[in-house]
């Protein structure tokens, strides 16, 4: 068992038990776990992945804003009232000035509501160079391509 744990460092006791069974040993998971603890074996922690700004198709490139109305961000926030009913808020901010451009609160927000709020902002403030969504809640193709301007 210790030889297998040295060979397969990221395997836990269940995977080692499966390897032992494949090798012809008649052991169950409980016995391997008991021996695992007696030997003081532990699975080393996984190394955290480096955070990257991916350039693959479908991902967004986060730009450093250079002036007002250069980069806007929008995101949905979900919450519940005291009586348990859910509501969502659509928050749109300017990345440079950190100004909140719009907050739309409703029980259900769909792509039509997002397009309405964005079109009102386009009329008032002009079209920003880029938009950036936080999360996967805005993956609908009705919003158009990533670059606006």
Task: Explain how this protein is built.
It is a single chain. A 4-stranded mixed beta sheet has the order 3-2-1-4, covered by helices on one side. 28% of the residues lie in helices and 20% in strands. It folds into 2 domains: 2-39, no CATH class; 71-143. The longest helix has 15 residues, at 111-125. Helix 2 (13-22) packs across helix 3 (29-39). It contains 4 helices and 4 strands. The model is unreliable at 144-149 (pLDDT under 50). The radius of gyration is 26 Å and the shape is elongated. With 149 residues, it is α+β, with helices and mostly antiparallel strands.
What are its keywords?
2 domains, alpha+beta, elongated, 4 strands, single chain, 4-stranded mixed β-sheet, 20% strand, 149 residues
Helical residues, percent = 25-40%
- By secondary-structure content and strand pairing, the structural class works out as alpha+beta
Shape: elongated
Approximately how much beta-strand content do the residues carry?
A: 15-25%
The strand count comes to: 4
Number of helices: 4
Tally the structural domains: 2
Rounded to the nearest angstrom, the radius of gyration is 26 Å
- What is the H/E string? HHHEEEHE
| Poorly predicted spans | 144-149
Q: Topology, pairings included?
A:
Elements (H helix, E strand, L loop, with lengths): L1 H6 L5 H10 L6 H11 L31 E10 L5 E9 L5 E7 L4 H15 L4 E4 L16
Parallel strand pairs: 1-4
Antiparallel strand pairs: 1-2, 2-3
């Amino acid at each position: 068992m210790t030889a297998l744990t040295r060979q397969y460092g990221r395997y836990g006791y269940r995977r080692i038990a499966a390897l032992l069974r494949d090798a012809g040993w008649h052991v169950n998971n409980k016995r391997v776990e008991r021996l695992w603890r007696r030997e003081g074996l532990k699975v080393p922690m996984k190394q955290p992945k480096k955070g990257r700004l991916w350039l693959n198709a479908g991902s967004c490139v986060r730009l450093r804003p250079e002036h007002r109305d250069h980069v806007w961000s929008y995101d949905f926030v979900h919450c519940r009232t005291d009586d348990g009913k859910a509501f969502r808020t659509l928050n749109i901010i300017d990345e440079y000035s950190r100004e909140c451009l719009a907050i739309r609160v409703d029980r259900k927000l769909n792509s039509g509501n997002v397009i309405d709020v964005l079109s009102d902002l386009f009329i008032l403030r002009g079209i920003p160079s880029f938009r950036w969504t936080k999360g996967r809640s805005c993956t609908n193709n009705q919003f158009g391509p990533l670059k606006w301007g």
